Amino acid sequence: LIFFVFSFSRSSAKLVASLGCLVPRQKHTLPDLPYDYGALEPHINAEIMQLHHSKHHATYVNNLNVAEEKYKEALAKGDVTAQVSLQPALKFNGGGHINHTIFWTNLSPNGGGEPKGELMEAIKRDFGSFANFKEKLTAVSVGVQGSGWGWLGYNKEQGRLQIAACANQDPLQGTTGLIPLLGIDVWEHAYYLQYKNVRPDYLKAIWNVINWENISSRYASCKK
């Protein structure tokens, strides 16, 4: 996946490369879920998963492809005004695609419990205990105003884990520089049909399906 860096201090060619608008450009596609829509029940029901994946994520993918095509046309025309006006759509839909692609793999019907090995040691080192980590990430996610995400990320420069929140669909790495390990979607479409407006209940439930194998694998990869 491509993380977006929006800067006009470099040549337009470099910006195009960062956006993936190279020719020929492969269109983004909706990834398959690694499990059935009902596999995460009772913690996240099938109706939520189907709508979330096949409607919401699909919309981000479709809109990202449209925005990239328009950007390609604006670049070919040398229309800088149009290029600038497309930045919000690229960021929002590109972030939505990036975030959800991570999110689906962060969940598993065989999830829950606690991580093991190096990830668990890092959590204890950086947060004191798994319980403290869980409490802090839950609190940050509950506290997101409106729509957004709670994240566990890896700070490569400092060699440590960090918790962060991002608004709307802002991608973690493109926004903060942290490498995403675990993302918790706290947009209402991720839980409202089952938990109504009680976000804390959804956050309590989601820990039962967290895929620690996936997160541990991400942690090992970003340390290389």
TrEMBL record:
GO MF, one annotated term: manganese ion binding
Cofactor(s) this protein requires: Mn(2+)
Reactions the enzyme catalyzes: 2 superoxide + 2 H(+) = H2O2 + O2
InterPro entries: Fe/Mn_Superoxide_Dismutase, Mn/Fe_SOD, Mn/Fe_SOD_BS, Mn/Fe_SOD_C, Mn/Fe_SOD_N, Mn/Fe_SOD_N_sf, SOD_C_sf
A GO CC term assigned to this protein in UniProt: mitochondrial matrix
Domain Manganese/iron superoxide dismutase C-terminal: 115-218
Record flagged with keyword DNA-binding: no
Domain Manganese/iron superoxide dismutase N-terminal: 27-108
Pfam families: Sod_Fe_C (PF02777), Sod_Fe_N (PF00081)
Localization (cell): Mitochondrion matrix
Record-listed Mn(2+) binding positions: H52, H100, D185, H189
EC number: 1.15.1.1
Keywords: Manganese, Metal-binding, Mitochondrion, Nitration, Oxidoreductase
Its job: Destroys superoxide anion radicals which are normally produced within the cells and which are toxic to biological systems. Destroys radicals which are normally produced within the cells and which are toxic to biological systems.
Similarity comment: family membership: Belongs to the iron/manganese superoxide dismutase family.
Record-linked PANTHER family: SUPEROXIDE DISMUTASE 2, SUPEROXIDE DISMUTASE [MN], MITOCHONDRIAL
Subunit structure: Homotetramer.
Protein name in the entry: Superoxide dismutase
Species of origin: Crypturellus undulatus
